Every structure is written in C-alpha cells, then in structure tokens.
Amino acid sequence: MSNKFFFVFFFVFFFSCKMDKKDTYATGEISLAIDPSLYDIADALTYRYMQAYPEAKIKLQQVKEKEALKDLLNRKVSSIIMSRDLTAEEKSIYQQKIDKDFQPAYFAADALVFIVPKNSPLEQISVDEIKNFLTDGKRKLIFDGANTSNTDYIAERLKLDQGKIEYSSLQSNENIIEELNHYPHHIGVISLNSISRPFGEKAKALRSKIKILAVSNGQGSYLPEKPYLKSRQYPFTRLLYFLTNENYFGVAKGLIRYSCTDIGQKIVDKNGLQPYNLYKREVQIK
C-alpha cells in the first residue's frame, strides 16, 4: 500500500514539475510580429539565433505595425519590432497590460528612403517638399499602404495627422520598386531594410532598378548611408527596437540580448543597417 502511494506521489510530482517548468532562452517557441518592411533584418537575426540554439523556435508574423503592438498587448505574440516611438497613451497601456516598465531594446538604425526610376532627372528632395507632397492632395508619394510602419513613422516625424496625410499606395516595398517605372512623376517611399543587404541577390536586383534621392533639410543634403544614420544627420533615420511581454528569460528575451550584443550587432552591420550599440575593437601589438 505504501509503495502504491509512493508511486502515485512521484508520478504527480514529476509531471506537475514538468508542466510548471518554463522555457529557457535556448528552448521553447515564440512568435515575433514585424511590419513587412522590416522582415529582412528580423529574418537574419532570428535565423542566426535558431542556428545557435536549435531547440529555440521563432515564428515570424508579418503584420502592420499597429496590429503588431495590439497583438503584443493582447499576448498573441511574445515580441515585436517597432520603428517609431510609442505615444504617451500607448506607453501607459503597455505598462498596465504587460505590468512592466516600458524598456525599448534598440538594436539598429533604419531609414525611410525616397526613390525614383533610374532615368529620372531628380537627384534630391527636401523635407519641406516631402511635407507638402503629403498635404497638397496630388498624392505624389507612393507608400506601401495605410497604417504601415512607413506611414506611421513619417506622420510622427513630420508631426502630421495620420488620418489626414494623402499619398498613393502599392502593395509592398518590393512592389513599389518593381512598378515605379509606370509612375515616372511619382516618388516611392520604402524602408532602407528592403534593399540594404550589400551582397543579397534580391536586394542587388532591386537596387539596380532605382535611384535613391538625397534628402536636404537646410543644413545639408544626405543619402541614407551608414555615417549619416550613425550621426542621425539623414533626416528620416529611424531607430528599430524590440518590445516583449515575456516576464522571464525565455526565447524572446534571449533573442533581444543576442541582437543587442556584439554578435547580433555584427549581423545588423552585415545586413546594411547601422548597429545601435557600437563595440570598440582593441588590437594588441606585441
């Protein structure tokens, strides 16, 4: 009788412990929600993380940025990547729903890029012209749809009402590049991340079809290149950061730490974006 009692006790204890055991940074499965314009850098970081930790599974969900934030708050996903600052109201909701301080984990500088067909005579555009194009009703700028990270960011950056800005739209950043020749008097607006991989065959093919405009702001004219992203002189530099609702050190926080430390920052650099955390290299000569 006592042996039977011991067996039942051991069985219940073993399986209750197993059910209570949380996943670790190296094991478990999460979903990461990202705007499609930020897919490439998210794909690069998660791919390398899963190579380092084969028992960690990260599923990428491509949704518009506002939907990603809603999914995080409703715990439908464990982590998201944002490209704009949260409003005071959004930060308050985050702290209430997630029950933790708002702590963005910055890892890269991306940019909005203004593009025209290769044969266009345009070489640059000014911040004032961009603001005027969004409010004059002519819809000269082409974005990847409403409520995307690109439209959200530019409305915030130029202090314009998101609901009142006017623009043309195509389905995706890639689609804008592919179709731009059909709209010679328009200017496409895409994320740098869409074309930033220096040696990626797809990125090289897309870059070959367009001309990138320099953006002037009264102090100078700048291309979306790393030195100007690092100094934030390029007027439409935007910082990318992770948010998570994970309350223990699991895969979501593991990915964030990985992305923000040396190895992750090298991946950011190799993917053509500006790393947020810069690491000094020390060489000893003997």
From TrEMBL:
PBP domain sequence ranges: 27-259
Pfam families (UniProt xref): PBP_like_2 (PF12849)
Keyword vocabulary terms for this entry: Signal
Record flagged with keyword Metal-binding: no
Protein species of origin: Elizabethkingia argenteiflava
SUPFAM superfamilies, alphabetized: Periplasmic binding protein-like II (SSF53850)
Protein name: Phosphate ABC transporter substrate-binding protein
